[in-house]
Give the backbone structure.
Amino acid sequence: MECPLCKGDLKPGRVTYTANRHGYHLLLDDVPAWVCQQCGEPVFEEKAVEAIQRLLLTLDEEVELVRQKA
């Protein structure tokens, strides 16, 4: 596989995913990804992206509920 940014070689690995949004910070360690050997850019497979998106949507909903009760 080829890196979409620098065209370097991608190798399977694990990375930390972070998101800062809607008043919270999410940090997920050990997320499987293809990692560029040249620039370090991670490329996530569709399954991982879908799982992260579901998690973020759930967190967004829960954070909104907490804000409404405050």
